[in-house]
Design a protein that fits this description.
The complex is a heterodimer of chains A (229) and B (233). With 229 residues, chain A is an alpha+beta fold. Chain A is built from five helices and 16 strands. Chain A starts with 7 loop residues before the first strand and ends with a helix. Classes of the chains: A alpha+beta (229), B alpha+beta (233).
Chain lengths: 229, 233
C-alpha cells in the first residue's frame, strides 16, 4: 500500500506523488510516472485522485455555477453581464422565463443592475447564462458583499452549514455567488450589516479549524453586546 | 585562475547576495511578490487573466503575457527619468520571453496576463530580481505553470567568473573589463533566457552556465520557501 498524500501547499513544478498509484486531477499533470503540480494551492487526495485546491487567483467559471454579476451592456437579443471572469458572459433573451418585447429589454434589466445568474454553458465564444431557475434574476434590494472567490467554499461551509448558520442568526436571506459576490437581504438593515460582518469575519479567519463553532461563539458575543447597549 | 579572488563586498565567487522573498505584498493584485538580492529590490504584481483590451490585440489561439518593467526614479542615486526608456522596453520584452515557456498560456484564449515589475532599489542584476519576483507573483496568482523559473547573473571580471554581480563589479575596468551574463533556468535545469554582451570564450561560457545552474537552485529554494509560507496556515 502507498501512504496517503498529506494536505500541503504545493508550488508549480513540484512533484506531489511518484508511481502509478495515483491519478492526476485539477491543477496537476502527469510527466513520466510523477504527478506534478501545475498551479499554486493545497494538494488533496481523494480516492487516489490528486487535485489542487486553489488559494488565490481570479474566479474560474464552471458550468452550473450560480454567480452574481452586473449588467454591462444590452444587445438586441440579450444582456452582456460582467461576472468577474476574463470572458464575456451573455444572458440571452431565450433564457428569460417570461415574454419580453425585443425593444424593451431595459425594462427587465438595465445597465448597472445586479443579477443572479447560472452558468449553463461555456464555449469558445464565451459564457452563456440563464435565469430560468428558482432564485435567479434581478436583485432589487439588500446589500452585496465582495469576497475573494477562493474563500467562497469557506463561507458556504460543509453542506451549507456556515451560510445556514448566518441565515438563522441574522434572519436574513443570503445567496452566495461562486464568483465571490454575496447577496444579503434581511428585514432590517441592522440584520444585513450583522450578516455582512459575519461573512467578512469568516473570510478573515478562513484558515482556522472548527470555524463553524467559532462563528457560533462570535454571534453569542455579539448578541450579548447588543443586550448590554 | 586563483581561488583567492576577493570581491569588494567580501563574498566568495559563487556566493549570492543575501536574498529575501515574500508573496502577497500587493493586496489589490491577483498575485504579487517581492524579491531582493542584497540592495536590489524588485516587486511584481500580476493582474488577470482578464479580457484583452484593445480587442484587436486578442489572440483566439492562446493568451498573451504582457510584462512591464519599470525602475522607480528613486531606485538609483542619480534620479532616473520616470517612464519608459529604450532599456526598460528591452527588459520588459526579455522578462516576457523568460517567463512565457513555463506558463500554460494556451488555456486563456483572448485573455491577457499583466505582470508589472517595479524596481524599488537598484544595485545591478535588476532584471534577474524582476524575473524571480514575477515568477513567484505568477504562481501566487494561481496561473497554471509547468515550473517555476529562477534567474541569476554571472559576471566575468577580467578573467574571473563571479555569481550575482553588483554595481561595482558591473563597472569593472581592469584587464578585459566586465561581461554581464543574465541566465534564467527552470527548476529542472532548462534554460529559458540568456543574454550576453561582451567577450567570453566558449569554455568559460560553459563554465558560466554550470555556475548559473547551481546558483538558480539556491534561488529556487528561497522562492519555494516564500510561497509555502502563507500566514494563518
Amino acid at each position: 500500500m502507498t501512504e496517503k498524500i498529506n494536505r500541503q501547499i504545493v508550488i508549480p513544478g513540484e512533484i506531489i506523488a511518484k508511481g502509478e498509484d495515483f491519478l492526476p486531477g485539477d491543477g496537476t499533470e502527469k510527466r513520466g510516472n510523477e504527478i506534478i503540480a501545475t498551479r499554486y494551492g493545497l494538494s488533496e487526495e481523494v480516492n487516489k485522485l490528486i487535485k489542487i485546491i486553489p488559494l488565490s487567483g481570479v474566479y474560474h467559471p464552471r458550468r452550473g455555477n450560480v454567480v452574481i454579476g452586473k449588467v454591462e451592456n444590452i444587445t438586441f437579443n440579450g444582456w452582456v453581464i460582467d461576472i468577474g471572469a476574463g470572458e464575456n458572459a451573455f444572458l440571452s433573451l431565450n433564457e428569460v422565463p417570461r415574454y419580453i418585447n425585443n425593444d424593451s429589454l431595459d425594462e427587465l434589466m438595465n445597465i448597472g443592475d445586479m443579477v443572479i445568474v447560472k452558468i449553463w454553458g461555456i464555449n469558445k465564444r464565451g459564457i452563456d447564462l440563464s435565469i430560468k431557475s428558482r432564485g435567479l434574476g434581478k436583485i432589487d434590494e439588500g446589500i452585496i458583499v465582495k469576497v475573494n472567490p477562493n474563500k467562497v467554499p469557506r463561507v458556504i461551509g460543509k453542506e451549507g452549514s456556515m451560510v445556514n448558520l448566518i441565515k438563522k442568526e441574522t434572519n436574513s436571506n443570503i445567496t452566495v455567488g461562486q464568483n465571490g459576490f454575496i447577496w444579503i437581504r434581511g428585514d432590517k438593515i441592522s440584520d444585513e450589516l450583522l450578516a455582512k460582518k459575519a461573512v467578512l469575519f469568516i473570510v478573515e479567519k478562513s484558515f482556522v479549524p472548527g470555524l463553524t463553532e467559532e462563528i457560533k461563539e462570535w454571534f453569542d458575543k455579539n448578541r450579548k453586546e447588543k443586550q448590554n447597549e | 585562475m586563483s581561488k583567492e579572488f576577493k570581491r569588494l563586498d567580501g563574498r566568495k565567487v559563487e556566493e549570492i547576495r543575501p536574498m529575501k522573498a515574500k508573496v502577497g505584498v500587493v493586496p489589490n493584485a491577483d498575485g504579487s511578490a517581492l524579491f531582493s538580492f542584497g540592495e536590489t529590490i524588485a516587486i511584481a504584481a500580476v493582474y488577470g487573466p482578464k479580457k484583452m483590451h484593445p480587442q484587436h490585440q486578442q489572440d483566439p489561439e492562446k493568451g498573451t503575457l504582457r510584462c512591464n518593467y519599470n525602475m522607480l526614479s528613486f531606485s538609483v542615486t542619480d534620479r532616473i527619468r520616470p517612464g519608459t526608456s529604450r532599456r526598460s522596453t528591452e527588459i520588459s520584452k526579455i522578462t516576457q520571453w523568460a517567463l512565457e515557456p513555463v506558463i500554460m498560456i494556451e488555456d486563456f484564449p483572448n485573455m491577457v496576463i499583466d505582470v508589472h515589475i517595479n524596481i524599488l532599489q537598484a544595485n545591478a542584476s535588476t532584471r534577474c530580481a524582476g524575473i524571480n519576483a514575477a515568477a513567484m507573483a505568477l504562481a501566487h496568482a494561481g496561473i497554471p505553470m509547468k515550473n517555476l523559473v529562477s534567474s541569476v547573473s554571472i559576471g566575468k571580471l577580467d578573467k574571473q567568473l563571479v555569481v550575482d554581480v553588483n554595481k561595482y563589479e558591473e563597472d569593472w575596468e581592469e584587464g578585459e573589463g566586465a561581461t554581464d551574463i543574465p541566465f534564467t533556468f527552470t527548476n529542472d535545469g532548462k534554460l529559458t533566457h540568456i543574454q550576453l554582451d561582451g567577450k567570453i570564450t566558449k569554455e568559460q561560457l560553459k563554465e558560466a552556465v554550470e555556475l548559473a545552474k547551481k546558483a538558480t537552485q539556491k534561488i529556487y529554494e528561497v522562492q519555494k520557501e516564500a510561497l509555502k509560507k502563507v500566514e494563518g496556515l
